[in-house]
Design brief:
The chain has about 100 residues and is α+β, with helices and mostly antiparallel strands. About 45% of the residues lie in helices and about 15% in strands. The protein has four helices and three strands. Strands 1-2-3 form a three-stranded antiparallel β-sheet, with no helix packed on it. The protein is globular and about 40 Å long.
């Protein structure tokens, strides 16, 4: 779970996904959409992932714990599968 749009932007930047602007959605469930279909998610080896994680913790000021590590390792584990999809979207839930 990302805390806010600034964290999402930082995560995108660390993944090499820059200049993605959200699109407003007019639905009851979701308020914004980021279409990252034109970008590939990084597929990192263990050392690269650990460096990515450390950079994420340092720049985001998030807690360095197993939950945080597990969330990012989950995302990373699906990168190869997601990169084969035609569309990759990130949505923001309405609060």
């Amino acid at each position: 779970m990302i805390n806010d749009e600034n964290e999402l932007k930082l995560l995108f930047e660390l993944m090499g996904i820059n200049d993605i602007e959200p699109k407003e959605l007019l639905t009851l469930e979701f308020s914004k959409l980021w279409d990252i279909s034109g970008h590939k998610l990084p597929e990192l080896n263990e050392e690269q992932f650990n460096n990515f994680y450390e950079t994420w913790i340092q720049k985001s000021s998030r807690s360095n714990n197993m939950d945080e590590y597990g969330n990012l390792i989950f995302l990373h584990g699906l990168s190869s599968k997601w990169n084969k999809m035609n569309y990759r979207l990130v949505v923001k839930e309405n609060n």
